[in-house]
Amino acid sequence: MSDNLRGAAWILASCVVATGMMLGVRGASSTVHPLQIVFCRFLVGFVLVLPFILLRGREVMATRRTPLLLLRGVLGFIAVSMGFYAVSVLPLVTATVLFFTAPLFVTLLAIPLLGERVEWRRLTATLCGFAGTAVVLGFDPGGFHPAMLLAVGSAVLFAFSLIVGKKLATTERPMTIMFYFAVVTTIGSAAPAALVWQTPTIQESALLALVGTFAAARVYCDIRGYASGEASFVAPFGYFRIILVAAAGYLVFAEIPTSNALVGAAMIIVSTLYIAEREARRGTSRPQL
User: Fold this and answer.
1) Is 92 helix (H, G, I), strand (E, B) or coil?
2) I need a surface site. Which of 165, 193, 217, 254 has the fewest CB within 10 A?
3) SS3 category, 247
4) How far, in Å, CA of 5 to CA of 273, rounded?
5) To 10 degrees, what angle do helices 259-282 and 102-114 make?
6) CA distances from 193 to 53, 89, 228, 248, 277 (A)
7) How far apart are CA 20 and CA 16, in angstroms?
8) In this structure, how many other beta carbons lie within 10 angstroms of the beta carbon of residue 148?
9) How far apart are the C-alpha atoms of 172 and 72, rounded to whole Å?
10) Domains in the chain: boundaries
11) pTM for the predicted model, two decimal places
12) pLDDT tens-digit map of 66-108
């Protein structure tokens, strides 16, 4: 298997576990508060990475950029909290499509925060993507749900997190970035979860553990995918997640995607793929969703 095909396989695996995570969040949210789900997601992730962090010892904590590391953790905690709530109340396809707007926001945020110059073609593609977002949100007030704005907000904060991560990657070890993110998100989500905490049943505990495990597995698969193959080749395979989520939503929750979601998804996908292709020509990597 070539490196590109191996990378594509990892991204497809990421789509599978990400879909499983969303199904777990939706299933658990029927009896467990989303803030409690968020805490369990970060706690399980922290437990899974802790052995690897301990192997590195104190050098993992050594950094001169503590404020940025803390900021990335706070952004991640809020983004996931908003995203999980959106998943708990919105059709799964709608939430997923809105999450895929993150690369569009990265393109815009890179101008003031990274000093990047965005050519008119990429800017036009970005504006087309936002037009697709407007289609998903719906021009008919009857089809609009306030949680849609939380999904978009989650994408915005995730884009900020990607920008911060890009800055940190120039000076910090990957394990250091992982350590601070795991600590900040776990501690940050503990207090809100304590306010709504209910002791989960055995079935709920198993579901919460699966959410955390799937979330960690998705991150691992994304890392392996983009490390194995060229970003411009493997990135499009990530959109397979929309198909999986649509199928899972229909089979498990009898959800039928709206025409707005499908048309908007097509516009966002075309726009982000074009942006990815332009970034590949410039020799830069595409943001991972």
Assistant:
1) helix
2) 254
3) helix
4) 18
5) 40
6) 25, 18, 37, 28, 41
7) 6
8) 20
9) 13
10) 3-282
11) 0.89
12) 999 999 999 999 999 999 999 999 999 999 999 999 988 988 8
